[in-house]
Predict the structure.
Amino acid sequence: MVLYGAIRDYVTKYVNLYYDTNDKIINDVEIQTFGQELTKSKSDGGCGIPGVPFENGKFSKADQLIEVFTSVIFSSSVVHAAANFPQYDAYGFPPNYPTKIKGVPPKNKNPLKEEDIVKSLIDKSTTLDTMVITRILSERSTNALGDFEVTYTYDPAAVKIVEEFRQNLKDISLKMHQRNEKLVQKYEYLYPEEIPNSISI
């Protein structure tokens, strides 16, 4: 996926800027503590995330950091947008995707009459609650990917990497808009300018 590649490219440049040797990674106490928190079991107060490349109880290579950081950024931005933003379109008309139904669910594929379907629909209050909740969940409430709320980057080399990332996202967006112009049913949820920097619920 093109957005994953853009994030991975950004992360790779950033990690390689500050961790140009394995010793810098191995001796970075905060990075090692971060790895321990990710992999430690939940019962021991950690996150218990399987598959983290924290080999022999430590991060030792840039590739490991790149994989973890890319996954975190991609999951909390692109994946979140893909799962969250279409919710109102799917659930906003509850008969299209009811959160629950009244009565007994159908047990076979026999055709139903319209009145059977109408009888199974939820009440007006629950319908409105569903619409309100999914509308709120579908809203964009943080800055877009690459447009950080607070600037922590002042190192000129790092600023250049951030600017390259933003330009890459603009290029991706342009291609997506051009592709969507040809479509009857446009897919707009993953325009980079619509993707949040992080989960914002």
